[in-house]
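Lab notebook, bench 4. Still working through the backlog of constructs that have no structural model yet. Next entry is a single chain of 76 residues. Request: give me the C-alpha cells for it.
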Amino acid sequence: MAIKRGNTEDHKSLARGTRQWREAQNLEVPDCADLLGISDRHMEYLESGQRRASVDLLMRMANATRRGCIFDTSVC
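Model written out:
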C-alpha cells in the first residue's frame, strides 16, 4: 500500500502563497531567488508546485520580510 505524503490542497496553497509573497514584495523571480539563496529554477518549481518549500526556506522568506530585505537588500 502506498503512503500518501501531505495534503495536495495544502501543497497547491503553499505554491500559490509563494508566488503571492514574491509578487507582494515586487520582486521578479531572479531577484527573489537571489535574495533567498536559491536558483531561479528552484523558485519557479516552488511557485508551480513541482517542489515543496523547506522549513528553512520558509523561515528565510519570513526573515527577509521582517528585516526589510525586500526593500533594501543591503541589510541582508
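Notes after review: The CA atoms of residues 41 and 75 lie 25 Å apart. DSSP finds four helices and no strands in the chain. Flag for follow-up if needed.
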